[in-house]
Amino acid sequence: MCLSGWGRHKTTETRVVQNEDLVAAAKVSALCRGLGRSYGDAALPARQEDIVAITTSADRILSFDPATGWLSAEAGISLYELNRLFLPRGWFVPVTPGTQFVTLGGMVAADIHGKNHHVAGCFGEHVRSLRILLADGATVTCSDSHERELFCATIGGMGLTGHILEVEFRMVRIPSPWIWSESERINDLDGMVSALKRAALDWPFTVGWIDCLKRGRQMGRGILMKGRWANPSEAPARPPQLTQSFQVPSVFPDWLMSPLLVRLFNFAFYWKHWRRQRRGIAHPQKFFYPLDNLRDWNRLYGRSGFTQYQCVLPHADDNGPARRFMDRLTSLGCASFLCVIKDSGAEGKGILSFPKSGITIAVDMPVRGSRTQAMVDSLNEVVIAESGRIYLAKDAFARREDFERMEPRLHRWQEVRRRWDPAGRLRSALSVRLLGDHA
Ligand SMILES: Cc1cc2nc3c(=O)[nH]c(=O)nc-3n(C[C@H](O)[C@H](O)[C@H](O)COP(=O)(O)OP(=O)(O)OC[C@H]3O[C@@H](n4cnc5c(N)ncnc54)[C@H](O)[C@@H]3O)c2cc1C
Question: How far is the CA of 359 from the centre of ligand 1 (A)?
């Protein structure tokens, strides 16, 4: 079967098995894969001969306690399915990424963060236990109180410490299934960072969109979006219907992402928000998953595919790190519709999890051969100088030496990994590229 990451620029022919055969597969080299929404090579095998175990058929809910919200489920269940079942019943996951087409296992393995990271942390903070199939075929249940090192190395461990079979985590009670949202047009980067900080005090969900082609005084201009669950008195009486999605045609021409078209789109998107502020009830799907409405939207980037670069940079009173990063990004002329900024809360328990206190910026870029590698190298140079780091679930181009310079935690994580997989059976294309695993 031919697999690729969500960015579609690298494909691999490989042997695929379903979750049921995982125990047998674990005895040889195998990697788990959920719904393939990581952008780069995290869910691709180290070599063609390796086995990729697709987890999506392991999708049962094992228990749910409506008194406390504790839910236990198999790791292949999708977030879409959890939303379909729980949202109308007044429950939601504690943390959601920007798409619902991910599996529970993928959410733990990447230790995903959402628009509420400043109040809720990563998904892993809400996980009580994990049942894991180890590289030697044994299973172990780990938690904060039992095999804690394995627990913390698996949360955000990109599938490299064991195959997550079951996840126990706590759902959150919500007052209604609708969102009350407000948005605000912002003139520049300083305005955006301070508006994010202000909004974080009152709003559980915050995120900003940036026009990443603007330079000079307008650099960082964009739209700030804030949201909270609507109270029953504000919310429509009917439950939100899951809307139909539009299918993107099979392949788009590469020129669609030309700087001119992106400039026009960004201009229109910014000025569509001609009123400085807007507020009202929003559909949860549109608020949390705006891109899910365009099925296979990753084809928009043409045959060469795309990558997403996401980093976190520490806070500074003068916004220096974020400014220097945006200076570099805009000077590279990276034309992108999607550039998102968010404030990131404190580091969580995942030894290798991405977020830490600061500002995170994510930008989609069409892949243009060696130019893309040069852009990523250049952005990584700034991130290293500013003591930031990158997100592995998005990365496809970082170099091993750069990653090592960003990650003082790597040594500790590798120690735990080696303890549980001394033969180095669990590998991925990402672990070959970034961690020096043999292919
Ligand atoms: C449109 C879009 C928006 C996104 N928004 C966000 C966001 O806001 N925040 C965020 O944090 N992320 C975001 N992501 C990234 C996404 O949440 C992660 O990449 C997530 O891991 C994808 O889950 P998946 O099931 O598709 O996993 P895959 O992509 O299939 O796999 C991802 C990694 O998880 C491992 N893995 C998967 N299942 C298991 C398992 N059962 N056991 C062990 N390892 C496993 C794989 O080996 C791989 O390393 C977004 C992605 C897209 C496409």
Answer: 21
Q: pLDDT-based confidence at 27, cuts 50/70/90?
A: low
Burial of 30 (0-12, 13-18, 19+ CB in 10 A): buried
Beta pairing, strands 339-344 & 205-210: antiparallel
Task: Give the mean pLDDT of the chain.
Answer: 93
Q: What whole-number distance in Å separates Cα of residue 273 and Cα of residue 282?
A: 16
Cα 340 to its chain centre, rounded Å, is 12
Please tell me the distance between residue 34's alpha carbon and the centre of ligand 1 in angstroms. Answer: 7
- The pLDDT-based confidence of 158 (bands split at 50, 70, 90) is very high
Encoded tokens for 238: 């009917």
Q: What CA–CA distances, in Å, run from 370 to 39, 133, 154, 373?
A: 18, 39, 33, 5
Q: Whose CA is nearest to atom 37 of ligand 1?
A: 106
How far apart, in Å, are the Cα atoms of 167 and each of 115, 143, 177?
Answer: 22, 10, 24
Q: Which residues line ligand 1 at a C-beta cut-off of 6 Å?
A: 6, 31-38, 42-43, 55, 75, 97-99, 102-103, 105-106, 109-110, 112-114, 158-159, 163-164, 291, 393, 428
**Closest protein CA for atom 45 of ligand 1:** 159
DSSP state of 19: G
Residue 22's pLDDT is 62
Ligand 1: centre distance to CA 36 (Å): 7
**Are residues 154 and 142 in contact, defined by beta-carbon separation less than 8 angstroms?**
yes
Residue 156 confidence (pLDDT) above 60? yes
Strand pairing report for 163-170 and 222-229: unpaired
Question: Residues of the chain with pLDDT > 70: what percent?
Answer: 97
Burial of 113 (0-12, 13-18, 19+ CB in 10 A): buried
Residue nearest to atom 39 of ligand 1 (CA): 105
Alpha-carbon distance 158 to 427, whole Å? 10
Relative to the CA of 103, which ligand 1 atom is closest? 25
pLDDT of residue 270: 86
Output the residue whose Cα is nearest ligand 1's atom 34. 106
SS3 state of residue 349: coil
What element of type H or E holds 308? strand 306-313
Give backbone dihedrals phi and psi of 264, rounded to 5 degrees, phi first: -65, -45
Nearest-atom index, ligand 1, CA of 31:
47
Whether residue 255 has pLDDT greater than 80: no
Q: What is the DSSP letter of 78?
A: B
Quick one: average pLDDT of 125-153? 96
- pLDDT, tens digit, 9 for 90 and up, residues 174-203: 999 999 999 999 999 999 999 999 999 999
DSSP string, 285-302: HHHH-GGGGEETGGGGG-
